[in-house]
Write a structure and sequence with these properties.
Mean pLDDT: 93
CATH class: Alpha Beta
Helix content: 10-25%
Number of strands: 6
Strand content: 25-35%
Protein name: EVE domain-containing protein
CATH architecture: Roll
Shape: globular
InterPro entries: 5hmC_binding, EVE_domain, PUA-like_sf, THYN1-like_EVE
Radius of gyration: 15 Å
Pfam family, one: EVE
Low-confidence stretches: none
DNA sequence: GCCAACGTTGGC
DNA sequence: GCCAACGTTGGC
């Protein structure tokens, strides 16, 4: 089981959206960055734990946990000319972009803010600290466990 | 709203 | 293949 950090702008898709449909799977689509795409396509596996991060708000923070329920498959939003994630270079034969499906696990007892993460020397190697723009980030088990402890949250 | 970081595009 | 221009992200 690997840990990941998935970033989202809550105005676009929030942890509450996930929490309100606890038994549903949700596609993590719209990722349009090659490094993040590679993770989604090749490395993210069923059963991996997702630290759900809210970005672009006054208090960016890890707010909850999700789990991966389907591994990388072509992102259909890239094929929809009407959608905002349309990419004319993608096609069914050459999809370019990939997504995974996730499901709600639990809310953090306490949110773990970016400020707290930056203040913890044990977490300074996280991409979030110095490569904040990457939207799908690997998290080491050590980092993951520290964050769960900071959030007063254990694995379900 | 500003701006730094960084990714992408396209001319050469 | 280099690099300047440009666009986007996201913290502040």
């Amino acid at each position: 089981m690997n840990y990941w950090l998935f970033k989202t702008e809550p105005g676009c898709f929030s942890f509450d959206n996930l929490k309100n449909r606890p038994n549903m799977t949700e596609p993590w689509d719209g990722v349009r960055n090659f490094q993040a795409r590679n993770y989604l396509r090749d490395t993210v596996k069923v059963g991996d734990l997702v630290l759900f991060y809210h970005s672009n708000i006054p208090q960016p923070a890890i707010v909850g946990l999700a789990t991966v329920v389907r591994e990388g498959y072509p992102d259909t939003t890239a094929l929809d000319p009407e959608g905002e994630h349309f990419d004319p270079k993608s096609s069914p034969a050459n999809p370019i972009w990939y997504m995974v499906d996730v499901r709600y696990l639990k809310e953090m007892t306490r949110q773990v803010s970016l400020e707290q993460i930056k203040a913890n020397p044990l977490l300074e190697a996280m991409p979030l600290v110095n490569r904040s723009r990457l939207s799908i980030q690997p998290v080491t088990p050590e980092q993951g466990e520290i964050i769960l402890a900071m959030g007063g949250t254990s694995l379900p």
